[in-house]
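This section describes the prediction task in plain terms. A model, or a person checking by hand, is given the sequence of a single protein chain and must write out its three-dimensional structure as a string of tokens. No templates, partner chains or ligands are provided. The sample shown here is typical of the held-out split.
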Amino acid sequence: MKIFDFNWLEVKKDQPLALTIGSFDGVHKGHLSILKKVVEKARQRGLKSAILTFSNHPRLLINPTAKGIEILQTAKEKLNVFEEVGIDEVYYLDQVPGIFDFEASRFVQEVIIENLNAQFVCIGYDHRFGKNRGGDVQLLKQFHSSFEVLQIPVLEEETIAISSTRIREALRDGKIQEANALLGRNYPLTGTVVHGNQWGRTIGFPTANIQLDHPQKLIPKVGIYAVEVVINPQETYFGMLYIGFRNGLDGLEKRIEVNIFDFDREIYGEEVKIFMHAFIRDDQDVKSLTDLIPLLQNDKKNVIEFFAKQNFVA
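The expected answer:
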């Protein structure tokens, strides 16, 4: 898969494309239906399958200090999904000068037609593009002599539209299994193992402290979770994840710590991927580390039972 993360607008593409446009926040089931259709059309017609998107949240590109933005996937996590689906090329708009000032019709003419040579364009049911989000499927259809347009209808889960907003709400409420069902995969947290105060070692539950790759990554509700931990493509383990403030202990900042089952190796500085499977319990106040031991013992028992019932094998 080729990534175009520079100002590629001045470099005309000769190979025609089957293209989709969007931010693909979370790359949920609705997004996957669009991506699969683009790949299908590309293979049928001998085209390259491509995505026109942003590597960062558009609001952050307009205002780097914007507050309240929570992303469901980092650019790296999205690329992994794009590649799994079979996308050939990803065109980032981040480095294209003045892109937010492009009126929708100019965007179609100069970017989609003249530069990318799109022969097929597929978008979601509610996608809008161009300055002030002025472009929609009806505008695209006005260019029918240049490319075919397909709009994918809304996908529903239990009669409610699948959306990034609904997934965010589920994650904030700790409804991990609901969020995963909408995403079509387990919600990921990707980060680097950093040094902590090593309290867990003293009570038999050593944890890896995770510093997330992206400061705007949405962190689910505080509590304990059943997770899979991938340290490299060949090593996958079960574990229990803690998100919280260590109520009753230090309580200074939110922490993300994972106790990896059947694992005993120093991995400071290594990247880990955590895939969340289920919410186990809310955070609880404890007066001391000794009081924490029976809670963690019970948590581990519940996590192991969860994976056993799901017939998971790490």
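For orientation: Residues 2-157 form a domain with the Rossmann fold fold (CATH 3.40.50.620).
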